[in-house]
Structures are given as C-alpha cells and as structure tokens.
C-alpha cells in the first residue's frame, strides 16, 4: 500500500513519518500524474490559501476532484479539511478554490489566530472502538477551522466545547451556536463521509497513530456506493467560492 501526501506546503513530512510508524510508505504528491500511483491521499495542515494557490499553479484541482470522485480514501487535516469541504466561510478576500465532496460547512479560522492555538483532550469513541487505546485523543489545534454544519450522510467522529473566548469574532453569529437554554454547544472537529475523513486538528503532530491506522483501514473498506460522498461533485463545475467571502478582522 502506498499513501500519497500532498506535499505543497504544511505538515506533510510529519504525516509521512506517522505513516512510517504504522508500516506504510508515504509518497510526496506534487503533480497530478503522481496520484495514479497511490491508493489513498492525505491533504495535510498548513496555510490553506497558500496551498490552494500552489495546487492551482500545478493544475492539481481536476486530478484531486477526480481522486475523490472515484472513491479513493482522502483524509484532510486542518487546511485539508477546508480543501474537502463543499462550503467554506471566513475566507480571505478572493477566497480559495476547494476540492469539495464533503457535505459540510467549515469556518476557516473558527478558533482564532495562531496565538489562540491550543491542545485539548477529545472524546473519540469510534476511533477507540476500532483502534483500541484510551477513549480520548490529545488534539492539537493550530489556527484551526471548525465544522459549523454537516449533511445527514456525514458521521460525526469528534467535537469540542466552543467557549466564547475561542469564537472567531467577525464572520458569524455567536448566538447561533447556543441552544434555547443559552448553554454552549459543541463544535464538530472530525467527520467521516464515505471515502472522506477530515479532522480540524493535527494527529500527525502527536505520537498517537490511531487516526492514521483508522484511515488506512478505509483503503480496504468495500465501497458500497462508489464515491457516494461526491455524487454531486463535477469536475466541470468546481465548488469555488461556495459562500460569500468575508474579510477577517
């Protein structure tokens, strides 16, 4: 098995090292034709706008969309989550191109700036049931996105409390994240939909390889509905600038 790691920018070396720890070869992907040699793909964390510009420069978006469309497993971490989302808010002026396929709405900088990065224990019942180990995972959130909405076919794997001091301050109504009693809701930070896995945090920056092992098992899962997660995705109609683009404060 060979797993590709998009190696344009960001933490691709850390993912390759984590794959090595679980006995799998990680292949750096920088050109469209290189995708033909791998069984699955990881889109790492990094600066999502810069990654998108580099992917566009190398004409990677059509190949990435096709990779998703044919049902090969793809995992996006942090910036990679933004890439896979059908809709993204909180983008910089001009937005960024998206691969799409994951039926969710992502806020690009939900947890704030680089200075507001943090670590926290995340409950991961699905991962613990499949991979063993403790029932929680140490999530590393670096200028992290948050998943605001998911479609009915999306399985939520993890969420975290969203206290007011972690809210992004300009692009959405804080009150929309509270229930009728005024209590704080949780924000989704990990999901799975068909052949797609996405995490807002960085498992590759820890020594815990359970997320990588979980993803590798997706490679061998029977695909009951080929690319069921991306039937609405068309390479002729890319999901670019899905929602109005807002300027960050």
Automatic annotation (TrEMBL):
GO terms for molecular function: glutaminase activity; lyase activity. Gene3D superfamilies: 3.40.50.880. The active site is at residues 78, 202, 204. It catalyses: L-glutamine + H2O = L-glutamate + NH4(+). It comes from the Eukaryota. Residues 225-249 are annotated as: Disordered. This is glutaminase. Its EC number is 3.5.1.2. PANTHER family: PYRIDOXAL 5'-PHOSPHATE SYNTHASE SUBUNIT SNO, PYRIDOXAL 5'-PHOSPHATE SYNTHASE SUBUNIT SNO1-RELATED. L-glutamine binds at residues 46-48, 108, 142-143. InterPro entries: Class_I_gatase-like, PdxT/SNO, PdxT/SNO_CS. Belongs to the glutaminase PdxT/SNO family. NCBIfam families: PLP_synth_Pdx2. The keyword Nucleus does not apply. Keywords: Glutamine amidotransferase, Hydrolase, Lyase.
């Amino acid at each position: 098995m060979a797993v590709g790691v998009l190696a344009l920018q960001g933490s691709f070396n850390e993912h390759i090292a984590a794959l090595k720890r679980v006995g799998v070869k990680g292949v750096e992907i920088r050109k469209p034709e290189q995708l033909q040699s791998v069984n699955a793909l990881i889109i790492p964390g990094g600066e999502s706008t810069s990654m998108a510009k580099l992917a566009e420069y190398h004409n990677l978006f059509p190949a990435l969309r096709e990779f998703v469309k044919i049902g090969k497993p793809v995992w996006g971490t942090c910036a990679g989550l933004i890439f896979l989302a059908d809709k993204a808010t909180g983008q910089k002026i001009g937005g960024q191109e998206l691969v799409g396929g994951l039926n969710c709405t992502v806020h690009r900088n939900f947890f704030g700036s680089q200075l507001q990065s943090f670590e926290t224990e995340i409950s991961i019942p699905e991962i613990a049931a499949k991979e063993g180990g403790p029932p929680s995972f140490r999530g590393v959130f670096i200028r992290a996105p948050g998943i605001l909405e998911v479609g009915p076919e999306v399985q939520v794997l993890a969420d975290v409390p969203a206290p007011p001091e972690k809210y992004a301050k300009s692009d959405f109504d804080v009150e929309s994240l509270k229930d009728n009693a005024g209590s704080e809701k949780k924000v989704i930070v990990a999901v799975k939909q068909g052949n797609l896995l996405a995490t807002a945090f960085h498992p590759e920056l820890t020594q815990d390889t359970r997320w990588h092992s979980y993803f590798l098992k997706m490679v061998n899962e029977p695909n009951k509905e080929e690319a069921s997660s991306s039937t609405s995705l068309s390479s002729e109609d890319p999901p670019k600038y899905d929602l109005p683009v807002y300027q960050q404060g």
